[in-house]
């Protein structure tokens, strides 16, 4: 860092005084690293004797090349976004590449300087308006509800029209995306489980600007190219992934559960994941957050993802097949099933058993049609004043929004006794029934809505 700053200053005709230079990055107890400090350090050195200059209102971020040009870094966007959310930053000075990303953040002024000389000129001049960057506006389809805009896209890279048969699975997929419900699909290899899972992200609910910025921040922290598309994240770790890569590791590094926030976390071949990873998912699935504790730090991450997984009915996969014979004995099947504990399965909203029949291809439904239904259900939920979609409702909100008619109350009580439903299971049933009611445009949960919800419970 020091060599880059020194080279940039020398190239721009700065003469170092015969003094020792000490740079203080406060507070000292917090570990700091990154090339985004270069520009601020260079300006402090270049302007150390300019006592009249004051630029406390401005934040400077940028990496310096050896010739004094300013570059973008992956950490600038998440840092600026975090400072804006805390109300600490209103004016920022960066290079043009950084400004393009930052322009989507509301309530800040962005000034562009592309080299060190330009930055020095910016500090010294009184006419700073000529450095002001014109902010861009996201150009996607929008819905405005309760004074807030929600964005969505209608380019379906993976379309449900190519999923043959599986009408019940498509219906479950629509419920899953309309209410942010966790989904497990059980079926023989090749019946369409993974195919359906990969299409879910394109029919998810519209995104608020805050959610789009959060997704971009997570992309930057994962060292990926930042985009501002209103398509939610889809993370699909392999079953050989380590526990730290999924839950978070050393130095409180983000894992897959945090990187999939507001999106989908997909586990293919679920029983092949180590049991300690599966059981560790219980907390983020229940509380929608995860605390990563290490010796020197504790970091809390939001985990409001939709958990989607696929599994075979037995080790060989042919137990539900209509054309192949299962080679597993009962002990092997039971051992395979026991890899998933009851407390974990209790956190799953929708459990679907799929067949391998593709004879019924008449009811072809496209992603556009499914997405339209999801958006209508989304509007209904937000119009009720819900901050969260049905799948993430708190216990208090369940009582407020999941209202049953008299006949449905009797059915739910019978189901509780006959199926030995836990308190959590009852809440899951109610939340799924609320989403089904929204898809049917019902103000309260009817008998039909509740029965459909109970049909998706694991038996």
What does this structure look like?
The protein has helices at 2-11, 38-46, 76-85, 96-102, 116-124, 167-179, 193-199, 209-221, 243-247, 256-259, 275-280, 282-287, 330-337, 342-345, 367-383, 395-401, 406-418, 423-439, 447-455, and strands spanning 58-60, 63-64, 70-71, 91-94, 109-112, 141-145, 148-152, 183-186, 207-208, 234-235, 264-268, 289-293, 298-302, 306-311, 350-353. The chain folds into three domains: 2-131, Ribosomal Protein S5, domain 2 (2-Layer Sandwich); 148-383, P-loop containing nucleotide triphosphate hydrolases (Rossmann fold, 3-Layer(aba) Sandwich); 393-459, Orthogonal Bundle (Helicase, Ruva Protein, domain 3), CATH 1.10.8. The protein is built from 19 helices and 15 strands. It is an alpha/beta fold and 459 residues long.
């Amino acid at each position: 860092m020091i060599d880059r700053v020194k080279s940039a200053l020398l190239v721009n005709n700065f003469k170092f005084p015969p003094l020792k230079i000490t740079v203080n990055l406060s507070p000292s107890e917090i570990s700091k690293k990154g090339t985004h400090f270069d520009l601020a350090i260079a300006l402090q050195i270049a302007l150390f004797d300019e006592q009249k200059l004051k630029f406390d209102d401005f934040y400077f971020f940028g990496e310096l090349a050896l010739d004094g040009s300013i570059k973008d870094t992956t950490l600038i966007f998440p840092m600026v976004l975090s400072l804006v959310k805390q109300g600490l930053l209103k004016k920022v000075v960066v290079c043009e590449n950084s400004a393009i990303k930052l322009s989507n953040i509301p309530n800040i002024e962005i000034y562009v300087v592309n080299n060190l000389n330009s930055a020095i000129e910016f500090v010294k001049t009184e006419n700073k308006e000529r450095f002001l960057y014109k902010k861009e506006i996201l150009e996607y389809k929008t819905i405005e509800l309760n004074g807030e805009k929600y964005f969505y896209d209608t380019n379906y890279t993976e379309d449900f029209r190519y999923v043959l048969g599986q009408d019940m699975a498509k219906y479950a997929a629509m419920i899953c995306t309309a209410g942010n419900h966790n989904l497990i699909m059980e079926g023989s290899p090749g019946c369409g489980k993974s195919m359906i899972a990969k299409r879910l992200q394109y029919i998810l609910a519209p995104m608020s600007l805050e959610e789009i910025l959060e997704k971009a921040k997570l992309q930057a922290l994962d060292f990926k190219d930042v985009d501002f598309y209103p398509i939610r994240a889809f993370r699909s770790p392999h079953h050989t992934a380590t526990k730290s890569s999924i839950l978070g590791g050393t130095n409180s590094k983000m894992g897959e559960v945090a990187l999939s926030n507001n999106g989908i976390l997909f586990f293919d071949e679920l029983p092949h994941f180590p049991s300690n990873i599966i059981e560790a998912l219980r907390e983020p699935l229940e509380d929608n957050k995860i605390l990563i504790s290490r010796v020197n730090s504790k970091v809390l991450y939001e985990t409001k993802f939709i958990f989607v997984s696929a599994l075979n009915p037995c080790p060989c996969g042919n137990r539900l097949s209509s054309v192949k014979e299962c080679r597993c004995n009962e002990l092997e099947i039971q051992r395979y099933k026991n890899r998933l504990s009851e407390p974990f399965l209790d956190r799953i909203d929708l459990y679907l058993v799929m067949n391998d029949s593709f004879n019924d291809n008449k009811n072809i439904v496209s992603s556009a049609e499914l997405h339209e239904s999801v958006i209508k259900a989304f509007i209904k939920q937000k119009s009720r004043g819900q901050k969260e979609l049905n799948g993430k409702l708190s216990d208090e909100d369940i009582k407020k929004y999941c209202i049953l008619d008299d006949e449905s109350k009797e059915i739910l009580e019978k189901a509780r006794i006959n199926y030995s439903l836990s308190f959590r299971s009852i809440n899951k049933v109610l939340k799924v029934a609320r989403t089904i009611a929204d898809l049917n445009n019902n103000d309260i949960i009817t008998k039909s809505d509740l029965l459909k919800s109970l049909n998706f419970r694991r038996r």
